[in-house]
Specification:
Length: 1029
Amino acid sequence: MALRNCLGLQCVLTVFYLISPSWMSCAFLLVTAAGDLPPCTETEYYFEYTECDSTGSRWRVAIPREEGTCSGLPDPTRGTQCGFSCKAGEFLELSTQQCTKCAPGTFSLGSGIRFDEWDDIPAGFTNVATYTEAHDNSEGEVQTCHNSSWTPQGSYLESNQDECMVSLIYTVHLTKQGFVSFEYQYVDGNIIFEFFIQNDQCLEMDQSSDQKWIKLSSNGDWASHTVNLKSGTNILYWRTTGILFDAKMVKPVLLKNIQIEGVAYMSECFQCKPGTFSRTAGSSVCELCPRNTYSGRGASSCTACNLEVAYAPEGAAECRGRPPCIRKDYFEIHTPCDSEGKTQIMYKWIEPKVCIENMTDAVMLPPSGKRQACPPCNPGFYNNETGSCLPCPLGTFSGGTDGRCQQCPAGTEPVLGYEYRWWNVLPSNMKTSCFNVGNSDCDQMNAWEVAGDHIRSGVGSLDNDYLILNLRIPGFKLPTSAMGSTGDEIGRITFVFETACSANCELYFMMDMNRKSTNIVESWEGSKEKQSYTHIIAHNASMSFTWAFRRTNQALDGRQFVDDVVKIYSITVTNVLGGVATSCHTCALVSQQPGSSCIPCPAGHYIDVDTNQCRECPPNTYLSGHLIYGKGTCIPCGPGSKSNKEHSACFSDCSFSHVAGKRTLTYNFSRMGPVASIVNGPSFTSKGTKYFHFFKISLCGQEGRNGAVCTDNVTDLSRNDLQNKSGGPTNQVESFICQSTIIPSDGRGFRTALSSQSVSLADIFLGATAENTLAGISVNPGLFPEMPKKIPDVNFFYWSPWATSSCKNGRHAVVTLRCNPDRSASGELSVPRKCPAGTCDGCTFHFLWESSSACPLCTEMDFHEIEGACIDSVQDKHYVWNDPKLCTGGVQLPAKKTSACQSVDFWLKAGAGIGIFMGILLTAITCHFWKKNKKLEYKYSFLVMSTKRQGEFPTADSCAIMEGEDNDDESVYSSKLSLLDQFRSLVTKASSEQHECVQLESPQEHSFKTGHQYCWNSAEHKSPHPTPY
């Protein structure tokens, strides 16, 4: 290393050669030129260590405070080993290279550094805000992140609340292995909070998911996080990314007390910050100044304020003037009941009292109210005549109104729990506290106050205090008769509340299981009317229920919203281990003999109220929770469902039948599973962050057990806790239908896609039907495209009973199964186009599942027969499906059938033969009658000729048969033609046009007249040729 200091003509050149190989020593060359300088004193220079070489060695060198002012600097000397450090409360004095204790008013961490002052961003920290891609909002403005950063708030840092990705970066070089620890508040799952480390090559170091993804903390509690560091360069990143799914501002992450261990040494101690002090030498921390005292920087003690005119909160850097008292400086309380059973309303100043009464315009404390009768004891308690309420002994119960405990009747058992309806004193298993994120000590404040028929939020120290009410439950125990049941509900907590706020107040209801981690169950903002909320408990564990109320999330001086209040009227918890009895229920008995003890009923059994005996529920019914008293507790399953063996739930076996007209349609949906999924989107937040809705659907489940699982990979619990601690809350949701929100890795620059906000949409199967309505849930036919109604849709209805602030009755889901032979057996899922998130109101979700497996099973009515041609006296019969084929599975097409037949050629030959025979017959008949006609013609001609000779016609009616003529000839003369004559006339009609006829009459009178015609062929004969007719 070369240090060159020049001033005018005087120049000092100091050259150090630090040779890294161990076999060479160091060489030093000192050159002094141009004039003499006065010797340097100890105040004109300071010491520093050189960089460490490959052997872990370093040198101590003297550096002048001002260049060219003195000469004769101490020679470089070998320094301490690079891994050397002092203990906490000490620093390394480089002049002696010895550890020295810190003076009073200062502190040291030894080999560490701490950042606990956040009036501004300390040196070495960097804020970097990025947005992966520019996006225009609805107004056409390009979204940027110039104003997004971690903001100092005095005693802590506050993260951004928008969708920008903001990183707080600090680089530290460690000479040995160490760690980094920090405290934080992280309560909103809509902001992603991660901590990771990079090396000097900007490569992310290996970390477990629990170390990188920060766990959610409880409202009002500071959680801590610690990660080990390797020696060398470590680049620390605290990164937050807001995801505004519903265009709502997220709650920021708060960060404080960053401590890093493993640095080389501390060459000096840090001064205590204002409001703190260290009274002894060798301190590793500074203490807060007590209330009504203050201190400046580097103080070894605190100075008291003039209490007559000033005050100071804990950790104050200065005293504040006392204001005149106003209405908001006092509150009312209800005194505990005295021995006479009386109480009264009294008024007290808010502690610590900071206002002054004897000033102009100051208000005075109102006088106490009149004594009045105390409220009754809560159910399960009795009045011991001393003004206090005590729990009833085991085996007894109390309704609370008369203050007496009674024995449970024979054949009954007490129902244990807690029911708090009257608030004269705070119950022994409840406590109140106050917390402020700015480290203001408000624990001694009145966080909650009892007020007779309700308990209400107190005043607190500041408007942004968390006012906390906690109820501790040791565990749960089912009644003896219900111990054999297998329902998911082991207990429930119900409370009635209301809020009245003029600002943006917040009420959180939280649950802690087995003292592991407090999770937010539900929250409310702003004023809310009086309402009831119920949470079902599914795991038997030690529980802590917490209500946290905050008037505003803004840090304001004084109390501006002290009248904003939350009131809780009643809190009821069922099946509490070691609780009190509010009533007695019938239990199942070994026998009906007097003194018989209660026994648990087997799973799926109820208690017959007439005989106190266990009876199994009827088929296809299930028990409602752990209520087993009376047959009415067995609830019928919905259509298309059946109960499991334990009668704890109803399920579908994936088969369904429906009568349509005269036909029964039978379905088998088993091929549409076991679990299907659909990713719809993408959707975009108000600032353009891309995300998807990911649904998993288990249509039939597993005999009442849910089959779809949605998992968060950004979780509030470590995976070790999930795997090793049964019964606790997990980062996965299991149900019939669940939903996760997916942020793709390319959407925000994450290494992997993020899955978060997993929720259950369907915990209970209600039934399956071809109708559009079931249990008050309706299907809107207009949500999906219409299809020809040859095969009806089948609707599966589900319900999730977990109520939310927007869904008072829980969530519902409907899966519509539609027969589509063009789809595969597994089918295709879709959501309504009008509602791309699957729901139009946030509470009822709709899905369309088109599949060939959604078609009914095939029957004989779904195919028809086709006969083939008769070839070689053999005929085939084929069977084909109706077009379109709207069935699946079921019966198979019958095989081809072959049968004997007579060919068409035989009948053609038979027909031709018959035709020829009939032709010959007709020809013979024609010839016969033609011959007969010729004979008659001859006879007539003969008759005419005879007439000419004699001059007259004969008088006879007919011609006589002459000798030698056939006797079968018919009479020529007739007044009416016979059938044969008619046929003969038709045959000869064709030649009638070539004949001429005359009417002849006999000259003689007869008894009857006879007419004659005389005809001849004018074309062939010149002379008449008689033809009689």
